[in-house]
Design brief:
Layout: H1 7-11, E1 31-34, H2 38-41, E2 46-54, H3 60-70, E3 82-87, E4 90-99, H4 102-111, E5 114-115, E6 118-122, H5 128-137, H6 146-149, E7 150-160, H7 167-174, H8 188-195, H9 204-220, E8 223-227, E9 232-237, H10 241-244, H11 251-262, E10 278-279, H12 292-296, E11 317-322, H13 326-334, E12 339-344, E13 368-373
Parallel strand pairs: 11-12, 12-13
Antiparallel strand pairs: 1-13, 2-4, 2-7, 3-4, 5-6, 6-7, 8-9, 8-11, 9-10
Helix pairs in contact: 11-13
């Protein structure tokens, strides 16, 4: 591990004693992993659709065009409407008619009609749902004779509910014997988050910095906020709840106030002169432009420090010893942090333990989250709450 030589000089503060509460030493042999949403790490969920087998293959093109016009499926644009397969030298062509609701699926399950291991329904049957299917298909129009164009049996098939994002999701779908063709365009940046290849967080430069930052987090039992454009530490601190008895004074909240102080603000008096808390005023912060080649390889969603000067945590990275709770995670979101890196999971941690808050839909800002994982067999400190 790279020694944190004179970290107090990086912070512009006098040497100070760390808080009494200490964690066990972080191993030098650690691994970094991106904390991503389940829509990226889990297999793509499957949903039921009703399909028809093409009887007259010459009518396939006409059927596809007609169905796309009169029975469009906006939510399944990532799927091909047609799926052809070979079975014993015989080509079978299936068409998606429409997506099935859970209510329709329950009706078919109650009918218990299974053909070739798939739930099926006969268009010529007498059931109420068969009548409903024929009514819906009637919109295809008189220019297509459904009796000669399609087989009588309609089958239930399960298909991808959304377009796969990762290579692993795509490969999982393709290995299924009932795979239905779907669009797939690999996103290099997300793949690099999954495997670390070509990603700046796994570079030697960032790894060296990260080891130093994590040493500082451990020494203070808290966290640091850094400007990744030059690696300088802007704020360093730890939770002060045990000292102030204030329930909001968690590490991240204290860091937020220290950043505000670095920009001429600050709301909590004790962050101005408490031992172990420090910040670098904006006026004395040596700013530099990031490497253009590095910026071009990063997604546009990642914030950068404004050229006009620092604003909140815009473009800053936050390193924490312990995973933040919902309150702290939302505070970092409102502060426009760029990345959050933590080591120890928390009982109430919202970035991996009990929630994936940063991956929720509807947020007006997003930061990336990474966790430093210790080697298998290493003993973590007891899992505690965010503080």
């Amino acid at each position: 591990m790279l020694p944190p030589s004179h970290p107090e000089k990086l912070l512009g503060e006098e040497p100070c004693e760390p808080p009494a509460k200490k964690s066990k030493k972080i191993s030098t042999n650690w691994n970094l992993e991106a904390v991503l949403g389940e829509h990226l790490t889990q297999p793509v969920p499957l949903i039921p659709v009703l399909t028809a087998t093409v009887k007259d293959k010459r009518a396939t093109s006409k059927l596809v065009k007609k169905l796309s016009n009169v029975l469009p499926i906006p939510s399944l644009q990532h799927l091909k409407r047609v799926n052809s397969s070979q079975d014993g030298g015989k080509t079978s062509i299936l068409l998606i008619l429409w997506e099935l609701s859970q209510k329709c699926l329950d009706v078919l399950n109650e009918m218990k009609v299974v053909v070739d291991e798939n739930l099926s329904i006969s268009r010529s049957g007498l059931s109420a749902y068969a009548t409903t299917c024929n009514e819906r298909l009637s919109v295809v129009g008189p220019d297509v004779d459904l009796d000669t164009a399609l087989e009588d049996q309609l089958n239930v098939v399960f298909v991808a509910s959304f377009q796969p994002v990762t290579r692993a999701q795509y490969n999982t779908l393709r290995t299924s014997p009932d795979y239905w063709p779907t669009n797939f365009h690999p996103e290099k940046y997300i793949e690099s988050q999954l495997n670390g290849e070509g990603h700046d967080m796994w570079s030697d430069l960032i790894r060296g910095r990260m080891e130093r930052y994590m040493d500082m987090c451990q020494a203070r039992g808290g966290g640091v906020v850094v400007d990744p454009s030059h690696g300088g530490v802007i704020a360093s601190g730890h939770g002060t709840t045990s000292m102030t008895s204030h329930p909001l004074h968690h590490t991240s909240m204290v860091l937020v106030d220290l950043i505000a102080r670095s920009q001429g603000g600050g709301a909590w008096d004790h962050t101005a002169n408490t031992l172990g808390l420090s910040f670098t005023p904006t006026t004395s912060n040596t700013s530099s432009s990031p490497d253009p080649s590095e910026v071009s390889s990063l997604p546009a969603s990642l914030s950068c420090v404004p050229s006009s000067g620092p604003y909140l945590c815009t473009g800053y990275d936050v390193y924490l010893l312990r995973e933040p709770c919902h309150m702290c995670s939302m505070a970092l979101l409102h502060m426009r942090a760029r990345r959050v890196v933590y080591c120890m999971p928390s009982m109430d941690g919202s970035l991996g333990s009990v929630d994936l808050l940063h991956a929720r839909e509807g947020l007006n800002h997003r930061y990336e989250v990474y966790r430093v994982r210790r080697p298998e067999g290493a003993v973590d400190c007891d899992k505690e709450s965010c503080s």
